[in-house]
Amino acid sequence: MRIVVGITGGIAAYKAPELVRLLVKAGHEVRCAATEHALEFVTRVTLETVSGHPLYCDLFANNERSTQHISLKDWGDMLIVAPATANIIGKVANGIADDALSTLLLAFSQKPVVMAPAMNSLMWAHPAVQRNIETLRGWGIRMVGPAEGELACGTDGIGRMSEPSEIVDAALSSSHCPLSTQKWLVTAGPTYERIDRVRFIGNYSSGKMGFALAEALAEAGAEVELVTGPTHLDINHPHIHVVRVESAREMYAAATEAFPQCTGAILSAAVADYHPAECADHKLKKQGDEGMTLQLVQNPDILATLGGMKQQQTLVGFALETDHELENAQGKLQRKHLDHIVMNSLRDEGAGFGVDTNKVTILSADGSRKESPLMSKKEVARLIVNTITS
């Protein structure tokens, strides 16, 4: 999961690096956004070191994007504000955006936001603060704490920020991970069908779409079995188990073995339809000017096989088309007993093999259709996952 940690100007800001460290240790990617006063308590260098990313703290800095609050909103899956002072709580509750963090918070309105309030107990008890808290809760913002204990002012009372480990546990609970009890199968990349020791039949698939889908499922809490053909891509996520195969028959064996234990499967791999009837154990030599005849044998149909196997499971296929796109994709959806099929066309510039973007149409068995604009494959993956699991 991609998490933005917002830090405001309270004494509890000194705990923010530990919060970031725990999130990173749990396998999440973290970026930090801080108010000007937060940097009175914790340094830019510390936050950038523990997160591994530049700090966002100046709304008008010469950043790589002039609208960084929007790019961070697009990047992040969740925003955690710790500590959340009375000031930032009041700003958000009243729609005020006058610095980097408050602007980011308003832009984050469609994604999970968690706040860990921290302030003096008298401030916490003030009717305005309590009204603002109830407003934010009504909007779906989750509050963690505050706890009761010794405060920075030397008194005891409610207002102490919850410990970083408690914030992590609360933020990553099942309410923010809707697929936390599920296991999904994803296939990715091409398959290579060997002709001899050095040659093969293959295609241009990079595996980027499948890897993005595996990551999107894992970010939503699912355990993922990623079966991938040959690709240079790598992925490091505690909820993703990678199985590397070469041929269509190897992918078939891995997929059919994993599927019965899964909630569903997304088969995005570009699987070869045929393999050579024979594979030479040596490099085949050219013989004179004569041509070469290569006899091909049909590979097992992974998608159709899983369609016949499924028991109350969700099955999603892909259709890369060059003509009669909708007609061909709809036919594949029905023939192979799919719940959804993701169609993309080589006619669309920026979609297809080897690029970082895609443009898709998601067709569902209930007759519904959802079209995406040209987006990054990671954004498309999140759209697909949200569509098929909603």
Q: Could you please describe the fold and organization of this structure?
A:
The chain has helices at residues 16-25, 44-51, 68-75, 86-93, 100-107, 121-125, 127-138, 164-171, 208-219, 248-258, 302-309, 325-335, 377-389, and strands spanning 2-7, 29-34, 78-84, 113-117, 142-143, 147-150, 156-160, 183-188, 193-194, 200-201, 223-228, 240-244, 264-267, 274-276, 296-298, 314-321, 340-345, 357-358, 361-364, 369-371, 375-376. The protein has 390 residues and is of the alpha/beta class. It folds into two domains: 2-176, Rossmann fold, CATH 3.40.50.1950; 183-279 and 293-389, CoaB-like (Rossmann fold, 3-Layer(aba) Sandwich). It has an eight-stranded mixed beta sheet with strand order 12-11-8-13-16-17-19-20, sandwiched between helices. It has a five-stranded parallel beta sheet with strand order 2-1-3-4-5, sandwiched between helices. The protein has a two-stranded antiparallel sheet with strand order 6-7. Helix 1 packs parallel to helix 2 and helix 4 (86-93) packs across helix 7. The longest helix is centred in the C-terminal third of the chain and has 13 residues, at 377-389. The protein is elongated and about 90 Å long. The model has no long low-confidence stretch (mean pLDDT 89).
